[in-house]
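Slide 14.
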Amino acid sequence: MKEQPEDIVPQVPPDKSVRPALIASEHTVSEYSTFLEHLLVGLADEAIPVLLVCPPGCDVDSVLSGSAEIIRHPIINLPLLGHQNRKWLVEQLLKFKPTVLHCLCESKASLTRLLADQLGLPYVLMINSLCGAGTRLSISWQHCARIIVPAKSIADDIARAYPRLAERIEQINIGTFVEEKTRCFSEPSHLTSVLTAHPLDNVADFENLFSAVRHLAVGGYEFALVVMGEGRAERQLRKLLAALDLSQTVTIVPRLRPWRSVLAAGDIFIQPRPNAAFNPLLLEAMSVGLAVAASKGGVDDLIIEDQTATVFDPSDELSIRGRLQQLFDRAEFARKLAKGAQNYLRANHSVSNMVSATVQAYHQAQQWFGQ
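Slide 15: predicted structure.
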């Protein structure tokens, strides 16, 4: 695996001979919107022509830079028209004349492989999550020049799953802009705001957290917890909050946007469960200067105990309560964690490094493919 150096900005060739076509799912455009916006703006700053392929239902207004073209695919989302939709997409891509394809997520791996074969192009595949049990990605040995991952935990996982492709794996950290100030407890007179974002699909994911919150509220701690998410268990979770007498303390809302503005209104961010995918919301929470309380496991590269976050056991209500109480009681410790996370991001997650390394990967893919 090739890992991007933390303190060296890759040297990108000065020519503009690269023309990437980015292929995204609706999930990528929604969940990784900040990453996509930064990448498109960075490529525009380098005067590199870009084409974005995404589904018709995607809201791309907030991520598109002025120079990027957009193609909607599929035009008609019916199984019987799959071949016709791909044929039309190939025709549109030929007009753009891309030199490399960049698949932004695993769900578009099969489509990207087909397009690369039809167009005779190399492609770069971005994998943002750990391999699930029994999951096999469609990866072309002949056309996939680079596998880009945003975290070492994912790189190691992919190398184990695809040992023949291990030398093509490259870690490029997702970049963000870090605020100069730390938001955590910057307004002592304001009610403490705690934020979390997690799918509302399983009541068990929240039971220990809500129990910890109840004990803290009964103990006299004054704060508000906002849970951002949607899912099939939302109704049961609201009933649980009512049973615990937490309806005035905990509020459930859909994912709110823009994320950075929402996060900037908080003091503490909780990651209640290990995440099998890189969590862009955790990255943004750290970048605006929130203190993070999180569970380890999964893709937890950003979670460094007592440096960027305080860590709890999600299956232990006492552990969750203790870590939150520590943040409430020791404001300076909480702010130190928030500042530590911001410093870590400045050193390892700059937008300029991300864009430079990605452009270099495009050039290397073209050279590897013989262009």
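Speaker note: The two ends are 23 Å apart (CA to CA).
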